[in-house]
Every structure is written in C-alpha cells, then in structure tokens.
Write a structure and sequence with these properties.
The complex is a heterodimer of chains A (264) and B (241). Chain A is mostly helical and 264 residues long. Chain A is built from ten helices and no strands. Chain A has a single domain, classed as ABC transporter involved in vitamin B12 uptake, BtuC (Orthogonal Bundle), CATH 1.10.3470. In chain A, helix 2 runs parallel beside helix 4. Chain B is α/β, with parallel strands linked by helices and 241 residues long. Chain B is built from eight helices and twelve strands. Chain B starts with a strand and ends with a strand. The chains are: A mainly alpha (264), B alpha/beta (241). At the A-B interface, helix 6 and helix 7 of A face strand 5 and helix 2 of B.
C-alpha cells in the first residue's frame, strides 16, 4: 500500500512534519544543556498522564500535558540548581513502571503498550489533525520568539537578567511549549519517536554547523525530509511508520556520530 | 559617604536557610575604581557576589548599585557546561541586546581574539574561552564589569595578558569588581579590597595590604611587601602570595 492510497494521507504528512519540526526545535536547548534524557523521561511521564486519563475517563491530552508540565516543574523549578540525571532517571522509572502496570490491567494491554512506545500515526482524527496543526504552528512561532533569550538564560542566568531579559518568564514559556510539544507528539509518535525528534535533529545539526539559525532552519528541513521519506518508505514496505522513522533517525544519528566524531 | 559610588554594601548578613555565611559586611566602591573580593575558596566571596548580582537576598542590611549602570558579568568557568558547539560570533550575538554585528567585532578586537570569530567554543583553549567570556561581557558596553575568578587555571603569560586587559578597560573609565583567591592578581589590578576569612570580612585599600597589618590580623602571620618594578609583591613565611 502506498501512502496516498491511505485516506487522510495529506493530513498525516502535515501533522507529522509540523510536530516533528516543533520537537526538533525544542530539543536544541536540551542537548546544549547535556540533558538529552530529560526528553525521554518527560515523554514517558506524558504517557503516564494519558494512561491515567483513560482509566479515570478524562480527556487524555489534558492530563498528559499536566503530567508533563508537573514533571518539568519538578526538574526545573523545585530543584533547579541540581541538574544531574539521577532525578531524570527517577522520573522515567516511576512513569514507565506505572504506565505499564496500568496498561497491563487493560484488555488490549499489549497493543496499548506498543502504541505508547511508538504511537499510532494512522489513528489521528481529522479534528485532532487540525488542532495539532494549529497548536504546532503556533508553538513553532512561540518557540522562535524565545529561542535566543532562552539560550541566554540557560547559558548565563545572571547576565540574562542584567541585559533586561525576564528569565523566569522565558523559562516558563519554554516549559509550557516543551510540555505542549511532547503531549501533542505523544499520541501520534509515541515515547520513542518523540524522544528521537527531540534529540536526533539537533545532534546532527550540531555536527554540521556552528550557527544558531542553521540549527533551527536546517533542523526543520532535515526533520521534514526524514519524516516524509520515512512515511513513504514505511507504507511502501509495510512497516509500522513510527517505529520505522525512529529507527531511521537513530541510524542517521549514529552514522553522524561516528563519521563526524571529531567535529565537536 | 562619597556620592560617587558605584556599589555600596551596608551591614549585610548573608546565608542559605539556617546557615549563616557572612556577618555585617561593609564595602564601598567608587565609580571608575577596581575593587577586589579576596579570600580562600569557601570563604563567602561567591555568596556576596550572588547578593550583589541579585541572585540571593541579604538576611539583613542592603546592597546598592548606582542606578542606570550597564553591568557586564564574567562568570566562573563551570567545567565546560557553557561551552556549546556554537561559533564565537553567534555566541556573542546571543548576548548582544539591541546592538549590531559591529559591537561584536569591537568586543572581539578589544580582547584580541577577532581571529576566533568563526571558531566553535568547543574548539577553544581555556585561555581563549576566558577571553570570549570577557568579550561577552563587553558587547553591551558595560560601565561596571564583574569578574568571577577571571584568571583561574591560567598560565602565567595568559594571566599577565588578562590583567593588562582589565587595567586597560579601567583606564577607559570602566569600574571593575574582581572576585579572586589570588592576592597577586588583586594587587596588580585593584585599589580597594574586601578580604574574607573565617566568616569575617576586612575592608582595606592598597596601602593597607602593603603594610602587612591587615593581612596579619586576617591570617595571624607576619607579612612583608615590596614593589618590584611596578609589580606589588607580598610575601609571608612559606612564599609569595
């Protein structure tokens, strides 16, 4: 089956490209701060929120967003001075264990576990696609507004204040955008692909360029190309799209790491 | 008190939670002056600096910085945490607020690293990275430069270059506050000193340091001093400081 034989192919493509690009931008600060694994812990926490929502019967996106933002608050605000990754690991452990436990009680447990990890890009409804597109585009716009100021804040909080930025506000905006991007991405990409979009494009761009604009623009282009090509190939060879795109991203990341290991 | 102040620390107590770090700190810096916060690691220099920069609030007392000053801050180097795979030019561009590319090149020229503009921060030596951080503080044309352990881990030649840079900025009217644990660096740049030792602070000037009396009361040892060429040297039993 080819991609365009599938009803709603255009909306799948558009949503995947927009949300993938949004996540690839959000990942730049995480990599610069050497906190890549925050991405997977937050994605898993978001998944826990969605799973809890399905048990208690509330709208999954809302609870997933609240859980993700809560985890971010815990990492960034309650314990801001300590950025070692053991706290990130704790969040991942509890979220992964609880979400798996809850899902294992459900009748469709095994399939649901796979959906949590790799999403279900084909299950997106038209109204969800429109909402995701609007929020994704607004999110990219919002992110580009705080892109440079946020990098100033995470590099040198004191100087950020002294040159007139409002660090707390900027950090808050980034936290909300990150929680939003992960929540929206989770449903169609799953934990692993959200993590891949957060980390791999920035990882590769850092090896090819030392320019902020190129990290952002080329990161979006790279994400779009890999997403579109990945979707076409997944349909052509009948692979699960989320798993396939994650595997391609991971492979490209490893190739870049080995081939250009002396660049950074 | 002199109205020509740039920084006043008035009877400040500082601490974290129930831990008291400094008591009744008094300090005063005039406009156009270089001053130094001096003392061993853990003595409270960084705590006072955080209070001056507004990152923590005093338990008691007040800190005044002259209104309308543009402050340039050079942080300690934190194990490469701030070294990103970004070009020096783009890095400075982040901190250049309402200023153009010309300011970036001027700052690079001032610290003598214009040839590094397109290099990545990750490719720089420790001394070059220090100069980039200094250029970062200069892009917004500050009136008041605050330098936290600026010569830490520098070799003797790089340290001499850096001290000359600091003095050249001061000759152009920039007020400078240096935080250091190295007395020789403070003596080669500053005229006013706040010395930290065992939770106490001692405020003195260049002559006070060179007389050896203040150092004796701080450390309980005998010191002698001399100016060799134009370089002040203070010695105590065991070597030069």
């Amino acid at each position: 089956m080819m991609l365009f034989d599938y009803p709603g192919a255009w909306q799948i493509l558009l949503v995947a490209v927009v949300l993938g690009s949004f996540l690839s931008l959000l990942g730049i600060p995480l990599l610069l701060e050497k906190r890549s694994f925050t991405g997977v812990a937050l994605s898993q926490t978001s998944a826990l929120g969605a799973v809890v929502a399905s048990v208690v019967g509330v709208y999954a996106d809302i609870l997933a967003f609240i859980f993700t933002l809560g985890a971010l608050l815990l990492l960034e605000w309650v314990d801001r001075e300590r950025k070692d990754d053991s706290r990130v690991a704790l969040l991942f452990i509890i979220s992964a264990a609880l979400s798996t436990l809850i899902v294992s009680w459900m009748p469709t447990g095994e399939a649901d576990l796979l959906t949590i990890q790799f999403g279900n890009i084909l299950s997106i409804l038209p109204e969800e696609a429109i909402l995701s597109l609007i929020v994704g585009v607004l999110g990219i716009g919002g992110y580009l507004l705080v892109y440079k100021p946020f990098l100033v804040v995470i590099n040198d909080y004191t100087t950020a204040k002294s040159i007139g930025h409002r660090p707390r506000l900027i950090q808050g905006v980034y936290s909300v955008l990150l929680a939003l991007g992960i929540t929206l991405g989770l449903k169609i990409f799953g934990v692993v692909l959200v993590f891949a979009f957060l980390i791999v494009p920035a990882f590769i761009m850092f090896r090819f360029s030392s320019k902020l604009k190129i990290w952002a623009v080329a990161g979006i282009i790279f994400t779009a190309v890999v997403t579109v090509a990945g979707l076409f190939l997944a349909f052509a060879f009948d692979f699960p799209p989320g798993v396939f795109i994650a595997a391609v991203l991971g492979l490209l990341g490893i190739v870049c790491w080995i081939a250009f290991r002396k660049r950074i | 008190m002199d109205d020509n102040f740039i920084l006043k620390v008035n009877g400040v107590d500082l601490g974290y939670g129930s831990l008291r770090v400094l008591d009744s700190v008094e300090f005063f810096q005039k406009r156009g002056e270089v001053a130094a916060l001096l003392g061993p690691n853990g003595a409270g220099k960084s705590t006072l600096l955080k209070a001056i920069l507004g990152d923590i609030k005093p338990i008691r007392g007040s800190i005044e910085i002259r209104d309308g000053l543009k402050i340039g801050y050079v942080p300690q180097v934190d194990n490469d945490g701030s070294r990103w795979p970004l070009s020096v030019r783009d890095f400075l561009g982040l901190f250049c607020r309402n200023c153009g590319e010309d300011k970036i090149y001027t700052a690079l020229e001032e610290v003598g690293i214009i040839d590094l503009a397109d290099k990545r921060l990750t490719d720089l030596s420790g001394g070059q990275h220090r100069k980039v951080l200094l250029a970062k503080a200069l892009v917004n044309s500050p009136d008041f430069l605050i330098l936290d352990e600026p010569t830490q881990e520098m070799d003797i030649a790089s340290e001499a270059d850096y001290i000359e840079l600091i003095n050249s900025f001061n000759r152009r009217g920039v007020s400078i506050l240096i935080v250091t644990h190295i007395l020789s660096v403070a003596l080669k740049t500053a005229k006013r000193f706040l010395i930290f030792h065992n939770r106490k602070t001692y405020f003195t000037d260049f002559d006070g340091i060179m007389s050896g009396k203040v150092l004796h009361s701080v450390y309980g040892r005998d010191f002698s001093s001399a100016v060799v060429g134009d370089i002040p040297v203070v010695t105590c039993k065991g070597g030069a400081l």
